[in-house]
Amino acid sequence: MSFSIAGKTTIVTGAANGVGLAIARHFAEKGANVVFADMDEKRLQKEVGEEAEKEDSNVRLFAGDLREKLTVANLLSATIDAFDRVDILVNASRQMMLSDPLNADDDAVTKLLNQNLMTSLRMTQMVAKRMIKQAEDEGREDGPVGSVINLSSIAARRTHPDLLAYSVSCAALDQMTRSMAVALADHRIRVNSVAFGSVMSASLKDSLKEDESCRAEIIDNTPLSRIASASEVAEAAQFLASEGSGFMTGQIITVDGGRTLVDNVGTSVH
Fold first, then answer.
1. How far is CA 248 from its chain centroid?
2. What pLDDT was estimated at residue 62?
3. So what's the pLDDT on residue 265?
4. 110: part of which helix (H) or strand (E)?
5. pLDDT at position 119, please?
6. Does a structural domain hold residue 1?
């Protein structure tokens, strides 16, 4: 069983920070060609600009607002120009927003559905069409054609009132994962998701600085008694991208230290 992704061309959205950045870096370290895509061009340049400028680098940067259909098309074109193909898509562009469930307006729900669901759906549709064309051009009638990995959250299954808009968007993303998995199965494209709990990202670090008691609360409600590193999510994503998971599609892999086994409404939202 092989978990190698060496030589595979990967697009990672939301790759300027947090888990998206960790996944993109991990894939590049494992030998994949990686396009780091994000709307924050300054942060992209800061994090990986130097690596992308090296001769024969397997890293490229793409800055743009992927909520726009034209930007999605431009990202795919830039990927093909750089590496001639695309084999793996990681939809890591996501946003969390707290809101009062009794006063949440349509804007909060619409914003997160557009960011967390529709961006991933448009990316999946466009990249899948390219994957299908590649297989047809190469005359491949069997074997894997591509893999799509969505980043979701355990919020899709939790009931935390302050996360109404975010939870709804993640639940919708999980259903999209299952639906696209069935729709693309005949084309030999697999679609799976990683739903994670508390990960030591920059945003969580900032939250812990403001409220140190939050750390103890998270740990107390996590059976493995710690907060995950972003690299642990990246390794799960690599597994789903590799041939080692070749008979898996439409699955929501949970990386949360067992938290969803014991969690309750009163637990911290992080």
1. 17
2. 98
3. 52
4. helix 106-112
5. 96
6. no
Confirm whether 3 is domain-assigned.
no
Query: Is residue 52 helix, strand or coil?
Result: helix
Give the other-Cβ count within 10 Å of 171's Cβ.
16
In a domain, residue 19? The reply is yes
| Residue 37 CB burial class (10 angstroms; 0-12, 13-18, ≥19) | buried
Give the separation between CA 242 and CA 190, rounded to whole angstroms.
10
Q: Is the dihedral of CA 104, 108, 109, 112 positive or negative?
A: negative
pLDDT along the chain (270 residues), means of 10: 92 96 98 98 96 94 96 98 98 86 76 95 98 94 95 90 90 98 98 93 73 85 92 97 97 95 62
Structure tokens at 178: 């299952």
Residues whose CB is less than 8 angstroms from the CB of residue 160 and which lie 6 or more positions away in sequence, other chains included:
167, 265, 267, 269
Backbone angles phi, psi at 46, to 5 degrees: -65, -45
What's the domain count of the chain? 1
Structure tokens at 107: 């804007």
Query: DSSP secondary-structure letter at 211?
Result: -
**pTM, 2 dp:** 0.94
Tokens 């109404």 found at: 164
The predicted structure's pLDDT at residue 159: 78
DSSP type of residue 156: G
Write out the residue range of the structural domain in which residue 151 sits.
9-262
53 CB contacts (<8 Å, ≥6 apart)?
none
| 146 inside domain | yes
Residue 235 belongs to domain with CATH number: 3.40.50.720
Token duo for residue 50: 């130097």
